[in-house]
Write a structure and sequence with these properties.
By secondary structure, this protein is an all-alpha fold. It contains 3 helices and no strands. The longest helix is centred in the middle third of the chain and has 33 residues. The two termini are 31 Å apart. The relative contact order is 0.07.
Length: 74
């Protein structure tokens, strides 16, 4: 697993230290993963929206292109 350094304000760090029962790295990892999942979901929505707009404009979108945008093996 890769390591990253995370900077937090001193006051936040002090508050975190008052709760050593929590695994703060696990909490941060889950929050980052959730944000990435949301970003990827929005990317997928944009791809679908772009394909619908192209179709509406009379431009053809191939299955292969659509699959590539969505990360689906064709």
């Amino acid at each position: 697993m890769a390591n990253i350094t995370l900077s937090v304000p001193e006051l936040l760090r002090a508050r975190m230290q008052q709760h050593p029962e929590y695994k703060w790295s696990e909490i941060a990892r889950k929050a980052i993963e959730q944000k990435i999942d949301e970003a990827e979901f929005l990317d997928d929505l944009r791809s679908v929206s772009d394909a619908k707009a192209a179709r509406k404009a009379g431009k053809l979108v191939s299955y292969k292109d659509a699959a590539k945008r969505l990360g689906i093996k064709s």
